[in-house]
Design a protein that fits this description.
The complex is a heterotrimer of chains A (239), B (440) and C (401).
Chain A: E1 2-12, E2 17-28, E3 33-37, H1 44-51, E4 59-64, E5 67-68, H2 74-84, E6 85-88, H3 100-111, H4 115-128, H5 144-157, E7 162-166, H6 174-189, E8 193-197, H7 201-204, E9 209-214, E10 217-222, H8 231-235
Helix pairs in contact in A: 3-4, 3-5, 4-5, 5-6
Chain B: H1 2-15, H2 17-44, E1 56-60, H3 84-92, E2 98-111, E3 121-128, H4 132-135, E4 140-143, H5 148-152, E5 157-160, H6 162-169, E6 178-181, E7 184-192, E8 215-218, H7 220-225, H8 244-248, E9 256-260, H9 264-283, E10 294-296, H10 298-304, H11 310-340, H12 342-350, H13 355-391, H14 403-429
Helix pairs in contact in B: 1-13, 2-11, 2-13, 2-14, 11-14, 13-14
Chain C: H1 4-12, H2 14-46, E1 56-63, H3 70-83, E2 87-93, E3 104-107, E4 118-125, H4 129-133, E5 137-140, E6 149-150, E7 161-165, H5 166-173, E8 182-184, E9 190-197, E10 213-219, E11 224-231, H6 236-250, E12 254-261, H7 262-269, H8 271-305, H9 307-315, H10 320-357, H11 364-390
Parallel strand pairs in C: 4-10, 6-10, 7-9
Antiparallel strand pairs in C: 1-11, 1-12, 2-11, 3-4, 5-9, 7-10, 8-9
The chains are: A alpha/beta (239), B alpha+beta (440), C alpha+beta (401).
């Protein structure tokens, strides 16, 4: 369970203060698939960074699995990221000079698993995204959709409780986008909580719940409404 | 984890080969230059008789001009050599375990065998008491030195250096054979093995870095043959010298004197013997300067004789300033490199790498640069010494790579790499990952 | 071009700027002091010897056999040498000038203790001495053959006549006009000064009394004797061989230890100075190269980091030359910061060197020239990355990556 109450985040430079989040409240339950939408500069990414413990915040409370995280040391935060959270980025962020196997290996190394355990998990997660046969390839030899699937495999290898995705399909064409989203849904059905930031309303509609962020605040909490997975319906979504 | 960090570090270095080469080159060059000067400095400042440092003493007595000290810059410094009269007095004392009085002399050396191909040639010999060999722990290839009876009877015996034995006898065991010095026959009693005391601590008056003499004969033959010094002779007193006898009785200093004193009691006893001797001499009108008899251990002796030239120190200092510039350069290059690595490091952080892991990984990376720079520095330092050999011709000993210094250079390189890497590594460790994850 | 925006951009990469400025500062400090030391050494090495060094040969003979006769040997050797084709003059001499070995004694202008002593190098030669060394007599006359004293044993007797350099005359008497005056040894014996020579250097190159040289009409008692032989230009190599053979074979009661050109000993004497100059010179080259690389590195880095910004500037109308100038001005500011610190460091280093090692204080002109040189080096080093920056196409501004 992820719970944010009255979170505010201010960026200060010498000249200006920017309120990225102000009095931000959100609760995400175990097993949910939440889409966070909103226009550019609304605070979506800041929310995701805070949720993923990549950034600290100025006030409010944030509990992950009931544990308040803002007071944790940098090392403890690193450990939580490593064990409980998986990230997926818009630009995949694979390491170009490591092959797929080694890319997936990165978080497992920091986890301190034994070699045999790492091997099992890497094989398993590459299998899941359908790229086990190409594990000796480097990222540049793959298409964008495949790269993103490697990134997902990397996120899954640690068997995280939370999967945080930042515009996971932003750099992909629609066919590949759909494949990636199918994969996320499958993962969610397996019990992993998925939080996806996107500005694409069509994608957002496939989530259990939509959260709209506006000016650093949650402006709309639409309830869980299963919708038919229908092309036409998606096209009719509010644009 | 070390293996993994090492692998990532090597990968990272391969990613920017030019930058990596520049950094290794900078450290290598800085270390190479320091190695070169440090090597020379180490040798000129070394103590080749360190093993016997606590029992050997160079003797100084101040018989110099009452108006004018021996060393204008240091009035406390007595002459570095003694007169023949004082040499005799030191020789007469039975307090020291061993005693050496000696000087250099020029002779013409010829094989004893008339049929030898070797033509007579001029050599510098050392006229010394036989205690020289055990006192200064000289290595013998064949035979040995001579005993005190040979000293007393001014026996015609000679110990050859390895070099002259190679020249005259083709390196064979020549003990028992004869050589001629100025057409007089001498029996070879010993041949030294390779011996290169650097600096030539036992006689710093005549070329501190010269090679050893080509042979050794008893000091007592000096007076018998009326040999004058082939080294420095310094006189201060207006006194007529019209014969060798008058020269021996003059205030001219030209003899080096050393004693071996095995205990503190003996040191004290010998010091008071010298003081007593000078007190007696003062009554005869000699030694008009303040009482200033010194017993110098070898390390003190090297120091007092200022064997290390100021130029060596200046060069050493400037070399380290050069190393500093090389390090600043490396720091700059590392900062540039690591700032390019911000996105990758952020990703690792997002995937759960703690700060200390990032720190360790980059520290390993800079250590690799340090080690590679050290190896390069070792090579460059060696080449530097080779080219110095041109500049130091005749003093090959000073340009020989000393492995102590080599290891020190490796240490300096590794340390340099880490010092240069510390700030950039610290900076990248403190990096806030979030901003670098959004875009490539 | 405005400096303020460039400065504020530099301040954003403070560390990089400080690092390179520091490199420039240390480089300036080392280079000025090193060049200063090198120049002193070169001046020292380049001092005129006063002798015809290029055409001088020195020979050493050492008699060892019981049958050796010193006087006869010298007579025969000199006859042999002087009869050789291409030999201008030859003299016995007690030491090789500028070789690091020789004799010195003190002279004073009166017999009383109250007169201060003045030390001088002395050379014992015969009547061909001045001609053999190639020194220039500027007043008085040479020694005549009849007063040369061929010694047979140690003696403290003063020679009857001496010739000295102008430097020695000036030092002793305060004037060069000394012909006919007397000089005294420390036993109260005196000699009349019969001639003055223009200039000549003595034995030890590091001795401050090197130009104080006195000639004695005297030939030592042996068994060691040296000869100075002056030859026609271009004949030296051939004559060295000839002398080795002729003297070597003429007399077997002695050995000829060596026959060598004067340069041999001079080079040896100045070896430490040559070494210092060469070593420091190489260090300067390496140091300046290293610093130039540092400047190139920093500039390349800042060009890379600002590709988009530069493209944007070009898009809004900056010309290539504006971009070029931007980086040149930036480098100029950086170098200026470095040399200001460097100038202070130069004097600090000089102060330390002169305190610690009794070296002379740095001439400020060197710092001035050093600053100019650093500016030039900086501008040259930044040229390549600046040109690369200037060639960034404006279209880059519209690309997303």
């Amino acid at each position: 369970m992820l719970e944010m109450q009255h979170i505010s985040k201010v960026y200060r430079t010498e000249l200006i203060e920017t309120h990225a989040l102000r009095d931000f409240n959100l609760k995400v339950d175990e097993g949910e698939f939440v889409a966070v939408t909103g226009p550019s500069g609304s605070g979506k990414t800041t929310f995701l960074n805070i949720a993923g413990l990549l950034e600290t915040f100025n006030s409010g409370t944030y509990k992950l699995d009931g544990e308040s995280v803002n007071e944790l040391s940098d090392d403890a935060r690193s450990r939580i990221r490593n064990q409980k959270i998986g990230f997926i980025f818009q630009s995949f962020n694979l390491i170009p000079d490591l092959d797929l196997y080694d890319n997936v290996d990165v978080p497992l190394r920091y986890r301190g698993f034994a070699a045999s355990e790492r091997k099992r998990r890497i094989n398993q997660s590459l299998e899941l995204v359908g790229l086990a046969s190409r594990m000796k390839h480097v990222p540049a030899q793959l298409s964008g959709g495949q790269q993103q699937r490697v990134a997902i495999a990397r996120a899954l290898a640690g068997e995280p409780r939370f999967l945080l995705a930042d515009e996971p399909t932003g750099n992909l064409d629609s066919l590949m986008a759909r494949q990636v989203l199918d994969l996320l849904e499958e993962i969610n059905r397996g019990g992993t909580t998925v939080i996806m930031v996107t500005h694409d309303a069509e994608l957002a509609r496939r989530a259990h719940r939509n959260v709209q962020v506006m000016d650093g605040k949650v402006s709309d909490l639409s309830p869980y409404e299963p919708r038919p997975l229908n092309e036409g319906a998606m096209a009719a979504a509010r644009a | 984890m070390f293996g993994y960090h090492l692998r990532l570090g090597l990968k990272s270095l391969k990613r920017n080969p030019v930058l990596t080469a520049l950094m290794i080159g900078a450290i290598g060059l800085g270390v190479g230059v320091c190695l070169t000067t440090l090597n020379v400095y180490h040798l000129v400042s070394g103590n080749p008789i360190a093993a016997r440092n606590d029992v050997l003493y160079a003797v100084q007595l101040d018989n110099w001009d009452p108006q004018d000290p021996w060393d204008d810059d240091n009035a406390q410094m007595p002459p570095t050599e003694v007169t023949h009269r004082e040499a005799m007095a030191i020789l007469a004392s039975d307090i020291p375990d061993r005693k050496v009085v000696m000087h250099k002399g020029a002779f013409v050396l010829a094989p004893g065998d008339e049929n030898s191909e070797v033509k007579p040639y001029i050599v510098e010999l050392r006229l010394t008491t036989g205690d020289f060999f055990p006192m200064f722990a000289t290595p013998f290839k064949y035979g040995s030195g001579w005993d005190r009876a040979a000293d007393a009877s001014a026996e015609a015996v000679i110990v050859l250096s390895k070099k002259s034995n190679d020249t005259v006898f083709g390196g064979e065991d020549s003990v028992g054979k004869m050589v001629k010095l100025d057409d007089r026959e001498y029996r070879v009693v010993g041949v030294l093995d390779e011996w290169r005391p650097v600096p030539k601590f036992y006689d710093l008056n005549n070329g501190s870095f010269d090679e050893i003499e080509e042979g050794f004969i008893p000091f007592s033959r000096s007076e018998m043959l009326e040999v004058t010094s082939a080294g420095n002779t310094n006189c201060w007193k207006p006194e007529p010298i019209n014969s060798y006898r008058e020269f021996l009785n003059s205030e001219c200093v030209w003899i080096q004197a050393w004693v071996e004193l095995g205990s503190a009691d003996k040191v004290a006893a010998f010091q008071s013997f010298l003081d007593g001797y000078v007190t007696e001499q003062k009554k005869t009108g000699r030694f008009q300067r303040p009482m200033n008899n010194k017993l110098n251990r070898p390390d003190q002796w090297l120091e007092a004789n200022e064997v290390v030239a100021d130029d060596n120190r200046v060069l050493l200092g400037i070399s380290f300033m050069f190393l500093a510039v090389c390090l600043l350069n490396t720091v700059g290059l590392l900062l540039a490199k690591f700032s390019g690595a911000a996105a990758r490091v952020s990703l690792h952080r997002a995937l759960g790498a703690s700060r200390s892991m990032i720190f360790r990984q980059h520290l390993i990376e800079v250590s690799i640069i340090g080690i590679a720079g050290g190896l390069l520095g070792l090579l460059l330092g060696y080449l530097g010494l080779l080219s110095l050999r041109q500049l130091y011709n005749g003093y090959d000993d000073l340009t020989r790579l000393n492995w102590d210094v080599g290891f020190m250079a490796m240490g300096i390189a590794l340390l340099a790499g880490i010092v240069a890497g510390l700030y950039p590594t610290w900076r990248i460790m403190r990096l806030q990952p979030a901003p670098y994850l959004k875009t490539q | 071009m405005e400096i303020r925006p460039i400065l504020s951009a530099m301040l954003r990469n403070k560390t990089g700027v400080i690092l390179v400025a520091l490199q420039i500062a240390i480089t300036l400090a080392v280079v000025t002091n090193a060049v200063f030391i090198i120049n002193q050494r070169l001046e020292k090495i380049g001092r005129p010897s006063g002798m015809d060094t290029d055409n001088l040969i020195f020979v050493q003979s050492f008699g060892y056999s019981p049958g050796y006769n010193h006087q006869v040997t010298i007579r025969e050797d000199l006859d042999t040498l002087r009869a050789m084709n291409g030999v201008i003059a030859a003299t016995p001499i007690n030491g090789v000038p500028l070789s690091g070995g020789g004799s010195a004694t003190t002279y004073s202008i009166g017999p009383e203790e109250s007169h201060p002593d003045e030390a001088g190098n002395y050379y014992e030669v015969d009547e061909q001495g001045l001609d053999a060394l190639g020194v220039k007599l500027v007043a008085g006359r040479n020694f005549t053959p009849d007063i040369i004293d061929y010694a047979t044993g140690p003696s403290s007797k003063m020679v009857p006549e001496i010739i000295m350099t102008r430097a020695m005359a000036k030092k002793m008497y305060g004037t060069e006009d000394v012909v006919g005056k007397r000089a005294y040894d420390n036993l109260g014996q005196s000699a009349v000064i019969v001639g003055v020579i223009d200039q000549m250097l003595g034995a030890w190159v590091n001795w401050d009394k090197l130009p104080q040289v006195v000639f004695h009409p005297y030939v030592g008692y042996g068994p060691l004797i040296r000869y100075a032989v002056r030859v026609e230009p271009g004949q030296r190599q051939a004559l060295i061989k000839e002398i080795e053979t002729k003297l070597g074979e003429s007399n077997t009661t002695r050995v000829i230890s060596w026959v060598r050109p004067h340069d041999y000993d001079i080079e040896r004497s100045y070896k430490a100075d040559t070494r210092m100059a060469v070593f420091l010179g190489s260090l300067i080259v390496l140091l300046v190269t290293m610093t130039a690389l540092g400047i190139v590195g920093l500039a390349s880095f800042s060009v890379n980091a600002r590709v988009k910004q530069i493209g944007t500037r070009r898009a809004v109308g900056a010309r290539r030359v504006d971009i070029l100038r931007y980086f040149m001005v930036e480098n100029w500011l950086l170098t200026t910061g470095g040399v200001v610190v460097g100038a202070i460091l130069s004097f600090a280093l000089s102060f330390w060197l002169s305190n610690q090692f009794e070296l002379p204080k740095l001439n400020p002109a060197y710092v001035g020239i050093g600053v100019l040189a650093m500016w030039v080096v900086g501008q040259l080093a930044v040229l390549v990355p600046a040109q690369r920056a200037a060639s960034i196409p404006p279209a880059i501004a519209t690309r997303t990556v």
